[in-house]
Structure formats: C-alpha cells, structure tokens
Write a structure and sequence with these properties.
The protein is built from eleven helices and twelve strands. The protein is α/β, with parallel strands linked by helices and 302 residues long.
Length: 302
C-alpha cells in the first residue's frame, strides 16, 4: 500500500460509515440515533462531518421530513455494500443454523404458500428452528420495500430494479385449472374445454395471471377477485368456478383436495422467478436460505 493511501485511510473515521448507512436508510436523525445507541446531538455532529467529507448536504429537509439528495441516492447502495463487507470480516466462516434467531420477510402470492413456503418451513423446522418467516403479500408497497432493503425475499420477478435487487429465473411452467370433481367441464371429452362461460376465481398477488386474465381469458365472468387460497378452494367445492394457476400447484392441489385439474394449452408459460435484496447473500445464513429456496423452486418445476 502506498504512503498516500495510508494517509487517506488515517483520515477516515469508519464509525461514520455505519452512521451514514443508518441515516441513508432511516432518513431521520432521532430514529438513527436510537438504532446507533447514540444521542441525537452526536448523530447531528457526525452528519456535519459527513456533509463536509462528501461536499454535499446528503439529507435535506422538506416540510417535516428529510429527503436524500441525488448524490446520497447514488452512494446509498455502495455504502450498504461496504458495511456488509466489513461485517463479513468479523463473522465466523462456519454457520450453525440452530443458533440463528432472525425474522425473514418473504413476499409471495397465494400460489407460493401451498408449495414453496410450506416446503421451506419444513426445512427450517428441521435445520433452523429459531427462524421466523414473516409473510408479505405481493403489492407495490412491498416491492418498494424490497428495493429499499426493508424486505428480504420475493417469490417472483422484480422488474426494472437490477441495481437494488438480484433475481434468478428458475424455469417456466404451463398453466392448468382445477374445479370440483363433478364439474360440467369434466364431462366433455374434448381437447379444449368450453370454459369461457364459467366464472373464474382470481388469486391475490399474481401479477402474471392478472395479465393473462385480461388478454387470454377476457370472456370469463369473475366470481372472486384477489381471493386468498383458502377462500378459493372452499368456493370451488360448491360452485362451478374455476381456479387457474401453475400446473405443478394445481396438480398437487387436485390430488390433496376433492378436485380435478386440466391443462390450458392457450395460456402461455409462466416464468418462475425469485428475487432478493442486493447483497443479501453476503450473509452466510441468507446465502444458505436462498440456496435452499432455489432448490425447492427447481424441485417444484421439475
């Protein structure tokens, strides 16, 4: 290392990096002070140093709130990444899953709950019993939380956020519908069921299927919209409604309940994706968790 580099490092205060990371995340001086176990004047003093260091106000007041400056927005992901790298220097290389006590927030539609999440919970019960899963519905608000790093994982693609989120496409699956065993559609021996007159049940949070409903299945009436999986399955038992979803999910639901399923050839394949906050896999536990969830997702597809 050159002498000039050593001089620059000597002038740096690494405590300021932690304060900067919290301030950029919280956008609130008193709230940041609580998280840092510092007094509010101490955080204000550190913010003054940071403003001088970056030659930028970083946080500017707008009414009763503080907003990030354009420069603060640009450096925020880099600061977060640096903090994660520093943290990795001091955490152990070996991971004892049974000692992990953490709450993991996962966003998913109801299509993910009977398969992906239930299988994950079985794995956690066996390997990491002290981990809590916080279930989050698929919504614009929660997508923004994921991008900001306030939510951990999503079962689905997060479009247009490649710098804030990491994503992987696990594959694609066909779509099928399920209905009660004695549904009129199952009495017709034809390749394409005449289902356009039967009502649909739309599951909450499925962005890809919302697009399919409007483009491929526009003529079907809608009995329930944004329904939970529990309500959808209960309604299927006494009505002529149809529930459409990924074939692996529909097939297993049909086998577990008193339903039949049928493949829908006219519906395009559905991409099965998984996304998480950028840099999350730098943590040994989250790397194990994401690897486990990817394996479960691939097993479901296959």
């Amino acid at each position: 290392m050159r002498n000039s580099d050593i001089t620059k490092l000597r002038d740096l205060d690494f405590n300021l990096l932690k304060t900067l990371s919290v301030l950029l995340e919280q956008k609130h001086i008193s709230g940041s002070a609580e998280l840092l176990f510092l007094s509010q004047p101490a955080v204000s003093k550190q913010l003054t140093k940071l403003r001088s260091m970056f030659n930028d106000p970083l946080l500017v007041r707008s009414g009763n709130t503080l907003l990030l400056t354009p420069k603060a927005e640009r450096i925020k992901p880099k600061v977060h990444s640096l903090c994660e790298q520093v943290k990795q220097l001091v955490i152990p290389d070996e991971l004892n899953l049974r000692e992990i006590k953490v709450t993991v927030s996962i966003m998913f539609s109801d299509y993910g709950s009977p398969h992906w999440i239930s299988r994950l919970l079985r794995e956690l019960h066996k390997e990491a019993p002290n981990v809590t899963i916080m279930c989050k519905e698929w919504s614009k608000e929660n997508i923004n939380q994921l991008i900001k790093g306030e939510l951990n994982i999503a079962l689905g693609p997060i479009l247009g956020s490649s710098t804030q989120c990491e994503s992987i496409k696990l594959g694609a699956v066909t779509s099928s519908f399920i209905a009660r065993n004695n549904h009129p559609l199952f009495s017709h021996n034809v390749d394409t069921p005449p289902f356009s007159s039967f009502p649909l049940i739309r599951i909450s949070g499925s962005t890809q299927y919302q697009q399919i409903y409007s483009t491929v299945l526009p003529d079907n009436p809608v009995m329930l919209d944004q329904a939970s999986m529990w309500l959808a399955l209960d309604t299927l038992k006494y009505s002529n409604a149809l529930l459409i979803g990924p074939t692996p999910v529909m097939r297993d639901l049909a086998h577990a309940e008193e339903f039949q399923y049928m493949h829908l050839k006219q519906v395009p394949n559905i991409d099965i994706c998984m996304s998480w906050t950028s840099g999350l896999t730098n943590d040994l536990f989250y790397k194990w968790l994401i690897d486990t969830m990817i394996k479960i997702g691939k097993d479901i597809i296959s």
